Model the fold of this input.
Amino acid sequence: MWKELLTNKYKLIIFVLVILVTVFIAASSMAINPDKHLDTDNDGLTDYEEKAVYQTFWNDKDSDDDGYDDGLEVENNYSPKQKGLKMYQADTDNDGLNDAWEIKLGTNLMVRDTDEDGYLDGTEVYNSYSPTDPNSKLIEKRIEVNIKDFTLKFYFGEILLDTFIVSNGKPSTPTPKGEFKIINKVPSKTYGGYGYSFYYPNTKWNLHFTTGRNGLRYYIHGAYWHDVFGVKNVSGGCVNVKYEDMERLYKFTNIGTKVIIN
Ligand SMILES: [Ca+2]
Ligand SMILES: [Ca+2]
Ligand SMILES: [Ca+2]
Ligand SMILES: [Ca+2]
Done:
């Protein structure tokens, strides 16, 4: 009888252990591989996207309490984590790299040094190193301007970080086509003035990419005096970019960054 009780006791212990281990394995596999299609709070982002990409609450549809659901914010390029900020304006972990680009690059927008190599994500991208690979070689940055489409694309290796609408040289003063390299970064500059029919002082964020035979310098720069980006070419040959876009393009472009204009 004692023997039987003892055997039953062991059976019970083994049974409980098996249950515990099963529950543990199931729970941890759910944590590692949450259902990619499950959207518990029904806000348009899956639980996986909320936990692994946007770092929002998977059980609260409005993570930043601004009245807009997480999914709606992401759809419209607003940060679901930071009230009133667009994705590219938010730098949740304050590592110098905006949330929009963190997602494009596959870094964690809550972790300042994603690949744990001692350098912040933003510092690595500025210096042309991969923020996700501690042993990476230099990565080529590239600015591509398509005059016909009025677009400027900014690449980090093969990753397209941003597409901006621009305005280029008008027909009488076209933007030079070809392959160039950034020669100089000029934080502030005056265009026009004495002898010109226009005067645009304190123009921010100027990237000098070539000099014409007449000595004229051509820049990619912010423009605050018009709003015809994407629809009309009005410049004297420079590539005009919206102020809200030019700031981050300027910040992450280096002397030597390749420029292709076609
Ligand atoms: Ca959700
Ligand atoms: Ca919200
Ligand atoms: Ca960041
Ligand atoms: Ca790093």
